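It is worth pausing here to work through a concrete case rather than discussing structure prediction in the abstract. The textbook approach is simple: state the sequence, then state the predicted structure, then interpret. We follow exactly that order.
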Amino acid sequence: MKNKRLEIIKELNETQGFINTVETAKDYSLGLDEETYNKYNTAIERQKELAAELDKLESSYGGIRTSGIFYRKEPALEPKPIKIDAVVSLQEEQYHKFTQNLLTDYDFIHDNIDNMYVDRQDASHCLIVLGDGENDGILVDSQGSNYARYVSFLPNARDFIQKNIQTMADEIIREGTAQTKNGSFVLGFDELSERFDTPILRDNYFGEAILAELKTRDSLTNVIANDNGIALTFTEQTEVDRPALTIWQLMAANLEDVHLLDVDEDHDLATIEELNRDTLTVQGIADWSDVLDASVERINFGDYGLQLHVSGSTPQRLKDFSYMLASHCPISDYERWVNPSVDENFDMKWSDNHE
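Step two, the predicted structure:
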């Protein structure tokens, strides 16, 4: 099940990457042919299917789960599935008192009675009690009582809970970066609770812990919560925290009359009349991989028309690549690097050497 989840997430990320590329191309009016447009629509439908698969898969084992043994006249040690639906963190003295007086009624147990029960899958939904300065914790299922009727010791409980909180924060940021177009993203607590199969409120442990974790992330400039949900503001850098677009990725959008510029240094330019995934031969893709893998830092329409400002290659390589595609190279190199079908789209201006 874990491998299946990873496979779905991997395909989701790949699909989202293609969608991001095409939408960037649309934003800059780079143009889409019918085949790319059809692939784009197919990718959107596939994304919906994958999201539904992932939701279905995760709903079958959502929430913070572990296993343990609850002690109350148990004839044998038999671990059972446990789902943690509430967390209470006590001060050191209170925690010590609780661990030494488990049969005493406590307000914090009474307040969480609805979070403690056994479901149809025989999983025990529990409260976990943590203490300041303590990493371990006590799982409690009061079964409708105000005292710790059933208990189980959970080693390294605080670290266990925090890792789950970090995972939730990772998912929130991943979803936000995939969906936001203006740098802002809002999630309701009802949606969060359903998404993670965990009761999440502004004023309960999970809500406060998730907010605290999000506020530590450099990818967010602002995290605001009210009784309804959380509003996030992403940094400009985060919007590109998704894998940066490369020249190769943008070629899926079929570029026309494009110019490649180094982001830091000026250099001679040449107009590339057409640049898409079919432009280069297999050898051309291999020999020019450093240029194709260069990151597109920004796109604009300038004095030379469509301009891609890139990093990760060198000004000389960008110039050579552009001049080659404009036919300013030996014919033997051109035929080795460019597919024959591209010949019709260029005015052939052969030269014996690079200019």
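Step three, interpretation. The chain has four domains: 1-61, 64-155, 168-241, 247-345. Residues 2-27 form the longest helix (26 residues).
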